[in-house]
Amino acid sequence: MTKPPLTLYLAAPRGFCAGVDRAIKIVEMAIQKWGAPVYVRHEIVHNKFVVDSLKDQGAVFVEELSECPDDRPVIFSAHGVPKSVPEAAQARHMVYVDATCPLVSKVHIEAERHSEQGLQIIMIGHAGHPETIGTMGQLPEGEVLLVETVADVAEVEVRDPEKLAFVTQTTLSIDDTKDIVAALQARFPAIQGPHKEDICYATTNRQEAVKAMAPKIDALLVVGAPNSSNSRRLVEVGARNGCKYAQLVQRATDIDWRALEGIKSIGITAGASAPEVLVDEVIAALCDRFDVTVAEVETAQENVEFKVPRVLREPA
Asked: Which residue of 5, 33, 118, 273 sits 20 to 30 Å from the alpha carbon of 305, by its own alpha carbon?
C-alpha cells in the first residue's frame, strides 16, 4: 500500500539547551564520584525519559530536602531553589551540588541587586513553577510579587510605585511577556527592568524556529513533558502563529494519528529538556505511516556551554 506523502519540517535549534545538558552531567558525575544513591531535589529537568534514565543509574528523586538522608549527596534541580534550601543543607552538614541553570542564577542575582537598592520586585512567571518558587525564595516574603497576566498587573499592590523592578521566569512566551512588561511600564513608569532579557536564549531560539515553520505546516508536534514550561509555550506559539493543529507529545506513542489524517506537512520541535532520541522516535513513527521528505528550518545556531561545579571536576 502506497504511503501518503508528507513534508517534515524539523526545527533548528531544538531539544537540549546548555543548562539542561549541564544539569544532567552534574547528576551523572555525582553518581560516578560518590556512588549510588545520589538524591535529587525535584526532577533535575522536566522530562520523564531523562529522569527515568538517571534513576536507572542510581539517582533518587525527592520533592523536599527533608526526604534526604544526611549522609548522601543531594543535587538541586536546574530550575533553582529558594535560599532556605541550601541553608538547611548546610545546617545538616550535607554534601550538596547546585545544578541551577546559570541563566536562572542570573535572575536570582538581579533580584538581590534590586532589593539591595531598596526596590520591591515584580516577577513575571507561572505560580507554582519551581523556577518561580526558587526566584521568589531568594528574598524575604513580600519582597517579590508575582504576576502571570496583563490582568494581574492592574491588581498588584506595591509598597511604593517609584521603587520597583521586574524580573521574569526564563521559559516564558516572548510575546506574552512583552505585553505584560508593557502593562507594567504603563502602570509604573519608574519600574526598572533587567540589563539583559531574562527569557533565556534557548527559549527564544526555539520559539523563533516555530514561528518560522508555522506558515509552512498543517500540524506541529512538540516533543516535551506536560510539566515543561518551555515545551508548553512552543505549542502555544505554534497555535498563535497559524498552526491548525499543535500537540505536545512525550513519546511517539502519544501521537494522535486521527488528528493528523490528511495532512501534507508537519513541523517537529522539542523543548529544551527533551533529548534528541525522542525526536528520532517521533520521526521514525511518521516514516512508518508516510512517505516522508525532511527539510530543516534553521533560525539560529547555538554553541553555549556551561561548566559543571568545581567539586565534580576534581579527582574523586
From this structure: 33
